[in-house]
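Thread: "does anyone have the structure for this chain?"

Original post by V.I.:
We have the sequence but no experimental structure in hand. Need at least a predicted one for the grant figures.
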Amino acid sequence: MNENDLITIGLTKEQAGKVIEVWNEAKKAFVPKADYDSKFKELNTANDTIKDLKKNYTDNAELQEKIKNYETELANLKTAAANTRKEYALKDKLKEAGVVDADYIIYKKGGLDKFTFDREGIPIGIEDILKPLKEESPHLFKTGQPGGGYTPAGGDTPIHNPFAKNTWNMTEQGKLFKSDPMLARQLAAAEGLKL
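Reply from O.Q.:
Generated one for you, tokens below.
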């Protein structure tokens, strides 16, 4: 699927570009089929080996120890698979909530274990966790305005972020900082700058 295909079916160039952008972002959250198939094959092989060893070698203490080791390894594989599912589900939920860098949020909160999941491995309570972060660190979230725009005090016409690379304007930065220092700091932080 490319932009020209989408334009051919009736989308504008802007719409087609946005669809491609959203699709490319969504693809990042997919678990590659090869990785999933590989882990699934390892899991089946470990299960088969354990069954065979238990059935054929009940008298040998050394083999019984190997069986225990394989059972431990199997339990670890199951835990790793469950954590992988939870991690991808969590990242999806964080991106839906407007998080720019899901990995950083997971790290900042102390890892995957600090989040709550239901029985199916779906994260719950994400909004409650993100609410204080949105207030403390708004630069970690998408603003919802295309092009890094903002609406100045007393106006309703969006103006580009004067701290963004493509719209850098020191005069506008000064005016904004004088009229609304909090907004100026937020816009600068969104571009990785500190005022």
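V.I.: this helps a lot. The chain has a mean pLDDT of 80.
O.Q.: and The longest strand covers residues 116-117.
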